Amino acid sequence: MKKKAVSLLLVMSMALSLVACQSKETDVEDTADTGSQTEEVSGSSSADAASGESAVDTSEMSYDELSAYVYDQALGEFYATYEGAKDAETVSGKYALEAIAEAKLLESGVLMPTTTVGGSYTMSRVAPYTVDYTLWGTDYERYHQALVCTEFITNEDRVEMKAKWNELRGTGTYEEWAKSYLEEKGYTLKSEYSLVYSSNPTTWDIFNTYLSSDSSAIVNTYDGLYEYDCEGYIQPALATSYEVSEDGCTYTFHLREGVKWVDFQGRELAEVVADDFVAGMQHLLDAQGGMEYLAGAGGCGIVNADAYINGEVTDFAEVGVKALDDYTLEYTLEAPCTFFDTMLGYSVFAPLCRSYYVSKGGKFGLEYDPSAADYTYGKDPSSIAYCGPYLVTSATDNNSIVFGANESYWNADNINVKKLIWLYDDGADVAKTYRDAISGTIDGIRLNTSTLETAKTEGVFDTYAYISSTDATSYVAYVNLNRAAFANFNDETQAVSTQTEEDKARTNAAVSNVHFRRALAFSVDRAAYNAQDVGEDLKYNSLRNSYTPANFVSLSEDTTVSINGEDVTFPEGTYYGEIMQAQLDADGVPIMVWNPQADDGNGSGDGYDGWYSPENAAAELELAIAELAEEGIVIDEENPIYLDFPYDSSSESYANRANAYKQSVESSLGGKIKINLVTCVDLAGWYYCGYYAGYGYEANYDIYDLTGWIPDYGDPCSYLDTMLPDYSGYMTKCLGIY
Description:
Blueprint: E1 6-7, E2 39-42, H1 63-85, H2 91-108, E3 111-113, E4 121-124, E5 148-149, H3 155-168, H4 174-184, E6 189-190, E7 192-197, H5 212-218, E8 226-228, E9 234-236, E10 239-244, E11 250-255, E12 260-262, E13 268-271, H6 274-287, H7 305-309, E14 321-325, E15 328-332, H8 354-359, E16 390-396, E17 400-405, E18 419-424, H9 430-439, E19 444-446, H10 449-457, H11 461-464, E20 466-467, E21 474-479, H12 501-511, H13 514-522, H14 526-534, E22 559-563, E23 566-570, H15 576-587, H16 598-601, H17 614-629, E24 641-648, H18 652-668, E25 673-680, H19 683-691, E26 703-704, E27 707-709, H20 717-720
Parallel strand pairs: 2-22, 7-18, 24-25
Antiparallel strand pairs: 1-27, 3-21, 4-19, 4-20, 5-6, 8-9, 10-11, 11-15, 12-13, 14-15, 16-17, 17-18, 21-26, 21-27, 22-23
Helix pairs in contact: 1-2, 2-15, 13-17, 14-18
């Protein structure tokens, strides 16, 4: 199943852009860290991941069989440990076992965390914490409540506003206070908000996509049942209230009456009723566009959702979503779900105007056929129904998307931004992006190494630049364990590898060895790599050391787990990263995912490099060399392993970063690993190396650093599920499997 991924473009030379599979809003300041009895649960025992050595003949295996074999060799221990987390009796016990499983994932070396969004110098006209605030889902890309000024907000005023947000959070009064504060300070609020985007939507059907480049646009056209407000609390939207059954398995929502569906011209189509949520769920499961897993066991576990997806149930009436009447909606789960309410604004719970969908050729169940000649739903912004704050008034690829106010919106009187303007920017001309920000064409700019100096020279840096907060986005460099493509799948003349057949075989054997993968991960000076984009001053700020942020959740009670056979009790309040670190330390794998001294002594997994160590890299490589020699593979300066690393050569920032990666690896490992920088002539070519690949066999690289993940909901399994086998985990395709 495909899931959403986030493009690294967000954090590189883009002015606070929308993700191209997942960008952050314009003011990354609107993010913050989150945290989450006595129970005894068990974890996995310590053992190095399999090296990949085996006498098994894989030549006759099918692709699925080979994927399963490669997965088991590299991630078998992670999977076994992670499966155990499902049996935990409490939420804290589950978090603890998930942390232990993630330690096993990191030890495997199949991925190396790189950076997150934020931690960089920014100038913005958007007031801090005035966009819907959450670390997961897509509510943070709903912009109707943003307070946008005609002038950049000074760093001094921003600091005061952040302090007030912390004071008022949870009272529901911050937005009104912020309006008054800005007016008192002489700022002028405006009703338009302009920002950049870097990837065109591929569809306008929210149910048939896993790409944030799609959902970040579409989310502004509909409302969810509940949505996060700017203080980080869920508030009623299309639902006004709900109840939960005593067993925690049935949720009954009471819908807001009188909400209208309209077309792209604002003409009324129908009223939003409970059946529209039933239609939305069925279309989600029919389309199988990548997010349907969230309805089944990979998410909240709606009754028979997986059975319907798999064809075991064909009557949708057997799926646990019912319209009890026009304004009463019921969801029934297989088992209680602790994070259910964190998903209510997400696409899996979006409504679909059934009558409009049918008018566009849409059908349900076995009759669903998106290839039919009369099927036009979601092909463009004029072929969807709207019930959100905005209508798309124009959309031109590689140019702009304009959202105008929906006059029929149920909460039209209370939105602050009446017009959203998205301007396309591929990041190639950072000088233009900067000038557009200064002139007011766009309302924010994330300063990189080039524009930072310009801002200082022009005297605006000291007054307006601030360091943005980091968020839950995790960018990752992936290792292709089973490479089959040596040119882009959409165009075989693009990003062509220069490796010989012998090189390919040697590389495949090397990356199958866990010590080789660890050597590679430990050899990368990630701060130097990141400095090519954010500059020397801030090169550590946005570094991330784990897949799930170390502060993402915390224990709500004392919890005992077994780490390598020894019971360890972690007290209430222990962060997820601390438990990961305990398992890594017990296994003797020198990765620091939790530093108690980071974040001014509060502890964090961000803001330092817990992986880079030329000494550890060299030691791991020596182990790999010895093991691979037993397979007849010699690795030395005269016989290095070649790894293809694609990058966008049209961007100076990307090119510099790729060269920093190459220099660090080759220097740390004495030239025994050589990085082939594979030129992509433009951004699209880089995307097609891997980000747009639908399956592992289309992945055209040995190392790929363009993509990452933003969580769907407030549980670490939103990250870890991406690494499940058998097409269940979206990001396993980045490893060249499934």
